[in-house]
Design brief:
heterodimer; A: mainly beta; six-stranded mixed sheet; globular; B: mainly beta; seven-stranded mixed sheet; 0% helix
């Protein structure tokens, strides 16, 4: 089973700053990686699919990059509504659709 | 508009059974891959099961042999039959629609609590 490791566990930043979140896979997943955002009490929301494609309705400040085993989610300039938990998910060896453990993005 | 509405969660004793339902609207369940994903309190996301449009089913090792995913095409509804429930099955259960690159629609979730 492919294991995804996200870092950092918690990221403390201020609105307007740039956020860089990492996801590393235990073996290559090619570009078959998705990113999700989850706010308290809500279901996850798909942000990025196939490593770098924004899902419908996702603002341009969200971008994804990477391939193979190393991936990055970048939020270019944080808005107040961006503070949430972010998960990556591999779609290469699917099912199972393993998720990373999450990165909590909090207001500094 | 695509909507997924789960129901059937609740408090159940260890060893008991529960069936979750997910009523879909705005699309056809049988034409899509549909999953269940769960989240234990304060924890991350765990994929549980998927049913393909062709009817094939797959399960996480943690639930294999205990849970069964199914659908009723006439009701456009997805189900998760959960047997031999354990305390570690306590979680919010989400039903979700799968697309090629990701899980694009999620329900609001239903809480299952396994406790005596």
């Amino acid at each position: 089973e492919i294991v995804l490791t996200q870092s950092p566990a918690t990221l403390s930043l201020s609105p307007g700053e740039r956020a860089t979140l990492s996801c590393r896979a235990s073996q290559s997943v090619s570009s078959y990686l998705a990113w999700y955002q989850q706010k308290p009490g809500q279901a996850p929301r798909l942000l990025i699919y196939d490593a770098s494609n924004r899902a419908t309705g996702i603002p341009a400040r969200f971008s994804g990059s990477g391939s193979g085993t190393d991936f990055t989610l970048t939020i270019s300039s944080l808005e107040p509504e961006d503070f949430a938990v972010y998960y990556c998910q591999q779609r290469s060896n699917w099912p199972p659709g393993t998720f990373g453990q999450g990165t909590r993005l909090e207001i500094k | 508009e695509v909507q997924l509405v789960e129901s059937g969660g609740g408090l159940i004793q260890p060893g008991g059974s529960l069936r979750l339902s997910c009523a879909a609207s705005g699309f056809t369940v049988s034409s899509n891959y549909m999953s269940w994903v769960r989240q234990a309190p304060g924890k991350g996301l765990e994929w549980v099961s998927v049913i393909y449009s062709g009817g094939s089913t797959y399960y996480a090792d943690s639930v294999k042999g205990r849970f069964t995913i199914s659908r009723d095409n006439s009701k456009n509804t997805l189900y998760l039959q959960m047997n031999s429930l354990r305390a570690e099955d306590t979680a919010v259960y989400y039903c979700a629609r799968e697309e090629d690159g990701g899980t694009d629609y999620w329900g609001q979730g239903t809480l299952v609590t396994v406790s005596s």
